[in-house]
Amino acid sequence: MNFDRNEFAKELGRLITAELNNSAQRFKNDNIRALAVDCYPWIPGLDLSFLTDDEDYPEKTFGKWSMGDWKYYAFTADGDNSWPAAEKLRSRMAEYFNWMAEQNKDTEAAEIIIRACARALMRVEVSDALKAYKLTNDFELYINDPDDPEEKNFCDDYKDPFK
Q1: Closest CA to 16 of 62, 66, 57, 75
Q2: Exposed, middle or buried, 159 (CB in 10 Å: 0-12/13-18/19+)?
Q3: Is 63 domain-assigned?
Q4: Is residue 61 part of a domain?
Q5: First and final CA of the chain: distance in angstroms?
Q6: SS3 category, 67
Q7: Which of 65, 98, 121, 144 has the smallest number of Cβ neighbours within 10 A?
Q8: Nearest alpha-carbon partner for 85 in 5, 2, 23, 147
Q9: Interhelix angle for 87-101 vs 5-23, to 10°?
């Protein structure tokens, strides 16, 4: 099965950019500390989340990246449905992940998908769309492997468009 990680990253970057452009007014009063992609290839789940500077959860206890506790966790979701605009990407991701899992390569597939998501976040058009937001001095782009206890940020492996 062919999974074009570059095409996936490009399309996801386009969707993230569109979502940011469409949501700028909604978040105009928030100071944004992080934009994260929440990716679970095995469910499949794919959403965007914002961390603000006025979160109401014990960050010292659970850590900064406890996305499920963020005020704007999965702000792209529509009710109980994951991000509707990303449905085709979610399906493509699931098909590839399941195909690789049949070959006992699910860990490899998850990393390929998560790295593609990191590349999507690092695209110039995403950083351009974020210029409409009030970003804090410690702003970060973030994606990790949810099964990794170290919570490695895969965006750290790519050039930061903000510096």
Answers
A1: 75
A2: exposed
A3: yes
A4: yes
A5: 37
A6: helix
A7: 98
A8: 23
A9: 150
Mean pLDDT of the chain: 91
* Nearest in space to 48 (alpha carbons), one of 20, 76, 71, 25: 76
CA 22 to chain CA mean position, Å: 17
**Mean pLDDT, range 42-54, rounded to an integer:** 93
Phi, psi of 95 (to 5 degrees): -60, -45
Asked, for residue 162, whether it belongs to a domain, the answer is no
Residue 60 has pLDDT above 90, yes or no: no
Give the closest residue to 71 by CA, choosing from 86, 97, 52, 48: 52
Spell out the residues 6+ positions from residue 94 whose beta carbon is closer than 8 angstroms to its own: 41, 43, 44
Total of domains in the chain: 1
The span from the CA of 65 to the CA of 41, in Å, is 19
- The residues facing 134 across adjacent strands are 31
pTM, two decimal places: 0.92
Q: Angle formed by the axes of helices 106-121 and 87-101, to 10°?
A: 150
Q: Is 47 among the domain residues?
A: yes
Is the pLDDT reported for residue 121 higher than 60? yes
Which residues are CB-neighbours of 146 under 8 A, at least 6 positions away? 38, 39, 40
Quote the domain boundaries for residue 75. Answer: 5-157
